[in-house]
Design goal:
Chain A is an alpha+beta fold. Chain A is built from 2 helices and 5 strands, in the order E-H-E-E-H-E-E. The two termini of chain B are 28 Å apart. The chains are: A alpha+beta (124), B alpha+beta (168). Chains A and B meet through helix 1 of A and helix 1 of B.
Chain lengths: 124, 168
């Protein structure tokens, strides 16, 4: 096969993505039974409602994947709502009278970036 | 040069019966605003209200309220005004509605607008007058609308008030 030297082309994206993707994990103080995806989303909405009111709770975000045993999820939110969502997640302290906390592992404007994580990467 | 900038919202309070207007006071209006903000914009909105906002002027006879907000976040606080449905004053609940007519950077510009606006309202009231004496009163009030040193406020016809601006 003929291989020609590929021409070098540089493409620069200036924040091309409309969304931001967050990989988060919910941690409880005590052991409890797993949550469903709907309850998980309802918990985040209640946190948004407490901090930003009805207007804030109406802001659209999506739960793309959810693992109900590990309680980790990937959220998708519009760019202008990232700060509100992240601050509301930080301030959620309890779920049905049980203390819990959200850990935000990764945030990226591109979904592909969430597939790799240098913290958990094992180098052979 | 370096000063804190405010936005003054000139609002007209619309109540269903006139006796409710007597209940207007600064504190009940502020509490009603904070409750509406807490519902609409949550803890963030209620906290923004506590920074540099106040009810500057309340006129119980004409139902004019002047609210002061910081310039940085006055739009968010303005958006919560339609959510105020009633005011609790002296143990009574007065259903009311805030109608924002003007936003000014200083109290003086709001006053100038209020004089012009009151004159238009008086002219609109003229066809509704029932007796000739009331019509004379209204005409006199319209001609004398101005920012003067000190003028007494007078009630002229059934529909109540004239809009003369009083300056203390």
């Amino acid at each position: 096969m003929d291989e020609e030297p590929s021409s070098y082309e540089r493409v620069a994206y200036k924040n091309d993505s409309v969304y931001h993707y967050m990989k988060i994990c919910l941690i409880f103080g005590n052991e409890r039974k797993p949550l469903s995806a709907e309850q998980f989303k309802q918990l985040i909405i209640s946190g948004l409602k407490e901090l930003y009111g009805e207007v804030g709770a109406a802001f659209p975000f999506d739960v793309l994947t959810f693992d109900q045993f590990v309680l980790s999820a990937i959220l998708r939110v519009y760019n202008n709502g990232l700060v509100k969502l992240w601050s509301a997640l930080t301030l959620i302290g309890s779920c049905e009278n049980e203390s819990c906390a959200f850990r935000v592992t990764q945030v990226s404007p591109f979904l592909l970036a969430l597939s790799g994580n240098s913290r958990e990467m094992e180098v052979q | 040069m370096v000063r804190i900038k405010y936005r003054y919202l000139l609002c007209e309070v619309c109540v269903s019966e006139r006796s409710g207007l007597q209940m207007l006071a600064e504190r009940p209006i502020y509490d009603a605003l904070r409750a509406a903000l807490g519902k609409a914009h949550g803890a963030h909105g209620a906290a923004l209200l506590s920074v540099g906002s106040s009810v500057t002027y309340v006129n119980a006879y004409t139902g004019v309220v002047l609210l002061r907000f910081r310039k940085a976040h006055y739009r968010l606080l303005w958006s919560a005004l339609p959510f105020v449905t009633s005011i609790w004053s002296r143990g009574q609940k007065v259903p009311c509605f805030f109608n924002c007519v003007h936003i000014g950077g200083t109290i003086r510009t709001c006053q100038k607008f209020l004089v012009r606006y009151s004159r238009q309202q008086l002219c609109r009231m003229l066809p509704h007058c029932k007796t000739e004496a009331e019509k004379q009163e209204v005409r006199r009030a319209v001609l004398s609308c101005s920012l003067n040193k000190f003028r007494e406020e007078e009630e002229d016809n059934d529909f109540g008030e004239d809009g003369e601006e009083t300056e203390a």
